[in-house]
Amino acid sequence: MIKTGIIGGAGYTAGELLRLLINHPEVEITFVHSGSNAGNKITAVHSGLLGETDLVFTDSLELLSAIDLLFFCTAHGDTKKFIDSHELPANLRIIDLSTDYRAKRDDHDFVYGLPELNREAIIKAQHIANPGCFATAIQLAVLPLAQNGSLNEVHVNAITGSTGAGVKPGSTTHFSWRNDNISVYKAFEHQHLAEITQSIKQLQSSFDAPINFIPVRGDFARGIFATVYTECDLTIEEAKKLYSDYYLGHPFTIIADSNPDLKQVINTNKCVLYLEKHGNKLLIISVIDNLLKGASGQAVHNMNLIFGLPENTGLKLKPLAF
To answer: What residues sit in the active site (predicted)?
Structure first.
């Protein structure tokens, strides 16, 4: 059994991670750390897990030496602060869901954890930086073109559910503002652009075109629906073959034959891609669940890879019926 711990156990991604790990056949949850909820039952915060677990939050780190893998579901910046201020066991595996280690730098050994890009490196890694949710949806929409050396200027409009903003209430997350409402934020300067560009250049080193990204707050709880287009000389048949070949053997990325909708991926670890050709432009629709494929599901996928398990272990999730 893989013995795991979680730092930052009270947020949405931690709740989804707990749901997955509780039902994972090869995992034992050793502790869930939360300074603000220490002593409370997990179900006092993650009420959907009522009847699934008797775990209690702790603020103790005494069991760090007893686990094989530590997940960080912390706010951006807090993972690095924790690692810099604590002496961690040398053989401890880490999967970080924050932004702290996604950028390649000489001062850390974290591997960027997008399996459809770095599967072989993930298998050998000790430390994984889990990708961002928008970054996952957008990268999966364009990586085959980058590998082909044919990616040009990219245009993206992507709408995300309110859970993407985290559990802490804010002026744009409370129900009366978010319901029946949409808005643009961080146009052309979203923080996920850096990791998207890094991954594209990994496959197409000559890429220097803009990625024009317009993020949109949606009036729903979970999911990302991204529409991406770029100029492309390939026919639609050539493009579909390029994408099918690239994602062959990657169980969670699916090329659809019909225009997808958001509910096809909610409560799954899938990314559904759909291609259309309009003149010289290739349209790619990319749809994911931001809390699963965009966060905790991908983290479990990475865990499966580094511990030599089948990739879909614990991730055979079913979409909503309607």
So the answer is: 133
87: left (phi over 0), alpha (psi -120 to 50) or beta: beta
Half-sphere exposure of 120 (CA within 13 A, CB side): 0
Asked, for residue 155, whether it belongs to a domain, the answer is yes
Structure tokens at 232: 């492309």
pLDDT single digits (tens) 43-99: 999 999 999 999 999 999 999 999 999 999 999 899 999 999 999 999 999 999 999
Q: Which residues are catalytic?
A: 133
CATH of the domain at 178: 3.30.360.10
3-state helix, strand, coil in the chain (%, to 5): 30, 20, 45
Rounded CA-CA distance 117/179 in Å is 36
- Say whether 221 sits in a helix, a strand or coil: coil
pTM for the full model? 0.95
Residue 211 sits at φ, ψ, to 5 deg, of -115, 105
Q: Are 88 and 55 in contact (CB under 8 A)?
A: no
